[in-house]
Amino acid sequence: MSSTANRTVNLATYIFTRLRQLGVGSVHGVPGDYTLRALDFLKPAGLCWIGNCNELNAGYAADGYARVKGISALFTTYGVGELSALNAIAGSYAEYAPVVHIVGTAARKAYRSKAMVHHSLGDGDLRVYSDIYKRFTVAQASLFEPKTAPKLVDAALEQCVKESRPVYLELPSDMVGVHVPESPLERPLNITPPSNIPKEEDSLVDAILDCIYSSKQPYILVDGLVAPDGITDEVNEFARATGFPTFGLTFGGGIIDGTLPNYHGVHAGKFGSLDFTPYTDSADLALLFGPLLSDTNTQGWSAVPRKDITIAFRRKSIEIGASTSHCLHIKSFMRTLLGRLNTTKLPTQNPKIASLPSVRKLATALPPIEPSSPIDQDSFYLRISSFFRPKDIIVCANGTPLVGGRDFILPPNTKLINSAIWLSVGHMLPATQGIALAQQELGEGGRTIFFEGDGSFQATAQELSTIIRYKLNAYIFIVNNDGYTFERLIHGLNAEYNDVANWQYLKAPELFGATDGSYVVQTHEVRTWDDLQYILGNEEFQNGKGLKLVNVRMDREDVTKNFRAALKLAGQQLMAEP
Amino acid sequence: MSSTANRTVNLATYIFTRLRQLGVGSVHGVPGDYTLRALDFLKPAGLCWIGNCNELNAGYAADGYARVKGISALFTTYGVGELSALNAIAGSYAEYAPVVHIVGTAARKAYRSKAMVHHSLGDGDLRVYSDIYKRFTVAQASLFEPKTAPKLVDAALEQCVKESRPVYLELPSDMVGVHVPESPLERPLNITPPSNIPKEEDSLVDAILDCIYSSKQPYILVDGLVAPDGITDEVNEFARATGFPTFGLTFGGGIIDGTLPNYHGVHAGKFGSLDFTPYTDSADLALLFGPLLSDTNTQGWSAVPRKDITIAFRRKSIEIGASTSHCLHIKSFMRTLLGRLNTTKLPTQNPKIASLPSVRKLATALPPIEPSSPIDQDSFYLRISSFFRPKDIIVCANGTPLVGGRDFILPPNTKLINSAIWLSVGHMLPATQGIALAQQELGEGGRTIFFEGDGSFQATAQELSTIIRYKLNAYIFIVNNDGYTFERLIHGLNAEYNDVANWQYLKAPELFGATDGSYVVQTHEVRTWDDLQYILGNEEFQNGKGLKLVNVRMDREDVTKNFRAALKLAGQQLMAEP
């Protein structure tokens, strides 16, 4: 009999212990009276509390943390807290970030009596918000009964990891202290990726290998769901083993080791810095990993291969061509695929490969900088790539950095974090706080390097103070182009609505409390290549400690060359009569 | 035949013209690619654009603006924008602020093809968000057909005003430019408060007057929905005419002219600075206007009169006692009630009235300040009341200012804006931006004076930059008590989760771009009564021009005396075993 057989723990401790077991080190959130009591049990369960400035930001931070650690937790109050965070959770849902959202609600008697409690709509319906969350989470645990609560918690947490999507725990304030058995905590949650029926898996592997062996002009196209699908290593190994021309989609721009000779860069149809379409348009096989094929991630689907030549590898299915789909778990499948791959049977190198451009060649071909010239979007992302090191995590906010980041050349074991479909303004600064924290907890070295436009920065700027408060290490490059440049080039080049307030960005650390000498803050204004080279070459700057805030001035109408055409097209579509 | 009979306008212009007709002068929001084209038509329709830093803040700002002007408009993009704003709209719904939320969505063909467009969840269901908004708005206009669009717009806008609650307009980007007839714009929208059937109204008035005439110990209790119900003047007149002891609830603390001799202050049961219960507990008639009886607004319902002695006057009904309810429109009813009130029949003054305390007496009885003493919550709100002038709008954020603001003594024609049930952290700073703008547009003079705790300030701080950007006039008193004091006193007095980051608040204007000499910014640090007196006495400070940011330091555990007991009780309830 287990030593804990008769012991109990309170429900809050039960939840927090489970989170700890899953690898959560810190819980993000904002306190509220319905959550206060539960928060007392965080530290004893081995968790840290990260108090964000508001709940939307806390949600974004949890999203970022989850993208690094594969799990995160957000704790908000009822109504106001959870609704504020909803946009972040919806984004985590859309982009497969596994966030456990715990909501501290009113005591159960308020539900029973339909009381007009604060944060309710005042009409006695206290389940409004939990109902909404059903649409944005893959499991909901309504913790109203001590008997069922532990099982509901366990089931929700397992779903969170298995589906890599948010789940929702509804914790009434009077359920925090109820006693539940401790013994289930001895059984680890079941989060191992499921295996497939070997015979089915083998036969599908063989079928796909046949397609691969008999192809003449194949390519690999890698998108960002490869990371939550847990097959980053496998896809890299596959790209390395086959030697096939390999491209990323924007969301998947950081999956493949950028130094791999057969990795050419991000495929953005006709709108990228490089044009791979002479090869991809005439290809006879596209191996598409972890796709999230939104309009923005594929330049209006122009970078999506034709269905009839595509094998799409998804988390729980593999689609061959336009009409065949197999339900299968990808992790196990990929291990088998790699195990059975016979490289001697691979097609001989297609002659067109020789003329394929690559982002590395593009960088090498850059002219030397003119020291006093202003920084331009076309070469900024290429040039700054030399600053990156293995294990760094690079974060690109929406807007011009998302586009520019396609040109990064990433060392092995780096991560690129960006958005594929959600594209919420301001998402990535709080996410960077969560990412920097996750990276610190992992303790594997590497730096957090973030690029964000000025308009985005304003949306969630106060989370810089959370970075400072918890003494996290981060680089923040503000790509300051004086407003919503991305939108200017779609429509309204000089329209007032594309302007933003005239902030003095480098004053931010002062407001946000970086006055403690124990935490190093560097701020830099960068207008020219010379300015940039000077700071990048500085050892103190390179070491990654503390906060480095860099205000990089760029022209207000500058975006990477070919992307200008994409934005123009988007604008034309916007103006088209119906 | 009207001159516009055959003329058309585009749908965006139609909407904006209607908004203008209703008194909207400015539209709040954040641009997004789905909204850009429509924004071109704002200015030509006579509207200004206020670009907020994020959509939640824009929603809060629109909420504040609506509370002053009786209508406001918010324009956000699809998905990310509307979900970010949801918490603000839900608050407007709960507290009856009439906000028109226009959402620019993808073109109609994306709906038809279930395309994986950006800001969607990626599953082809593009109506997820509009479905959610049904729960938080009183009308939804899905503008997918040119033929029906104008009528849907008109109906929604009429509902917005009639119900004083948010409505939702879903505007696909390809519907912006469709042509609709111009002629309906000549017919004003029907927003006059409906009248009642005279006979029914008269008989109810008589019945209620009978109750009033035959009462022995009556009182008037005024709550905040009196303002959206449009009967502020009538209730003031009624209080003046009857001379009955009159109290506010916290949310209604600004409805009654604070200089009215029979207005005693805010009734907060046993937890206010004044205890009116010796009178109210033995009263035989409570006339309750505009009630929104949440737990927080009534101190756990302890300030709510017994049902059997209550007549509750609501927007569309009057409830007499525990079981009788009459459907009736309040505005017309109140005019009739006032018209038929015979003051000679009123009960003689109850002797208990003489011993009723009042907030004015409390202020008079205050000892002279000790110049070098720190500012305390118990007397700050009383003492600063002398700074207020007629036509000022006073705004109290949630937390200690909401509670302290109960002690304000308000001159005639001032407004007090606070929250009754929603109590969302950070709500009121963006709301203050909207309020200051609305006040400027009304052009009736008066100043916007805002009190907010430091924790709240951090939640939405960037909207200070919107105040600066549009050169709005506002006072912001940061009640700086080093964290979430309100919550500390509920639970976790020294808990880390009740701390906030250590900001240097007075640096905010610098970061936020107040470098333009054309806009005057004053910042002040206030630690003692002397400091406070010095600035309040300064003419430059009094004039209300520009931004006056005052960092008022208070003790981290200070709240008004009797309210401490309320928070302690809340904490005990939180800790009670179920």
Automatic annotation (TrEMBL), chains A, B:
Gene Ontology CC entries for this record: cytosol; nucleus
Root EC class: lyase
The reaction(s) this protein catalyses: a 2-oxocarboxylate + H(+) = an aldehyde + CO2
Keyword Iron: no
Cofactor binding comment, as recorded: Binds 1 Mg(2+) per subunit.
Residues at which Mg(2+) binds: 454, 481, 483
Domain Thiamine pyrophosphate enzyme TPP-binding: 412-518
Record's keyword terms, sorted: Decarboxylase, Lyase, Magnesium, Metal-binding, Pyruvate, Thiamine pyrophosphate
Cofactor(s) essential for the protein: thiamine diphosphate; Mg(2+)
A Pfam family matched in the record: TPP_enzyme_M
Superkingdom of source: Eukaryota
Gene3D superfamilies, per database record: 3.40.50.970, TPP-binding domain
Thiamine pyrophosphate enzyme central domain: residues covered: 205-338
Protein family membership: Belongs to the TPP enzyme family.
Protein name as it appears in the record: Pyruvate decarboxylase
Organism of derivation: Zopfia rhizophila CBS 207.26
